[in-house]
Amino acid sequence: MALWRVGAAPLVAPLRHLSGVTVTPGDWGGVAGSRSHSTTPARRTSTTTQHCLDAVRRNDYENFLALLLLPQGARSAGVAVRAFNVEVAQVQDVTSEILIAKMRLQFWRETLDELYNDDVPRQPVALELHRAVKKHRLSKRWLRSLIDAREEQLERRYFSSITELEVYSEKSNSALYYLILQALGSENLHADHAASHLGKAEGIIKALRGIPHNASKRKVFLPQDIMMKHGVSQEDVIRGSREQNLKDVIYDVASGAPSPLASHICDKNNSNSLDRDKPYRPGPGSTPCPRHCEAGQR
């Protein structure tokens, strides 16, 4: 489900030697990032950090804003992770040829292997990601998960159930939050649990927001079991149907059962559990937050 605007370099371009970009890692000191200057006053070149920041701002603006809330020590790593995600997420929008898309993803898979061996290609995102990996010991597993999820999606035509959509969302969204938690130095199981549910919820939201975009490419990523329940076909979605049965599908996907994350957060006995070491135990106050449920149903 590609929801990003496209702005990637062509596949045949030498990705390791992008022209016009200074491939020198730099620290991000603010929203605008840091910039380096050549010995020629009229020439200004961006650092790899600025390159990544611009990529996230152009293609994933909501998460760009969220990055501004991170502590400064983890912000550059967050930018690198989000920029890497932009690179792999927009692959399926850059080309309609599955083979070419797989080649692009294979480039990033090989790049990950190289940067974990300190043999970093001179590509801005790779260089910035390498700095984050070295500084915060980011897990290669979660970075690979982002690539694997996108490759699985290349040939997917639908999700058979909401569970299958959640599995994809765990790989493509929750993994991002696990990496950001690592950059923050968090080893809290409660935080990991929250990140898992947050990523799944975000994936479901993206599936709904991406309906028009995907329908324009004759793709439908709504759960098939819910569509069958309401008598909605893929062709109905592609044609842009506004019938009540399609609205019922969207309602079921969006609302469903109360989120375990909401129950956890709204539990009066565990309101500070993200800061505790003791395990989570539901208590008498462990009920879904009404405000959350009502918002989801709307």
UniProtKB/TrEMBL annotation:
It comes from the Eukaryota. Residues 34-48 have a biased composition (Low complexity). One of its GO terms (biological process) is carotenoid biosynthetic process. Keywords: Carotenoid biosynthesis, Ubiquinone. The keyword Manganese does not apply. Its EC number is 2.5.1.32. Pfam families: SQS_PSY. It catalyses: 2 (2E,6E,10E)-geranylgeranyl diphosphate = 15-cis-phytoene + 2 diphosphate. Residues 29-48, 262-298 are annotated as: Disordered. This is 15-cis-phytoene synthase. It comes from Portunus trituberculatus.
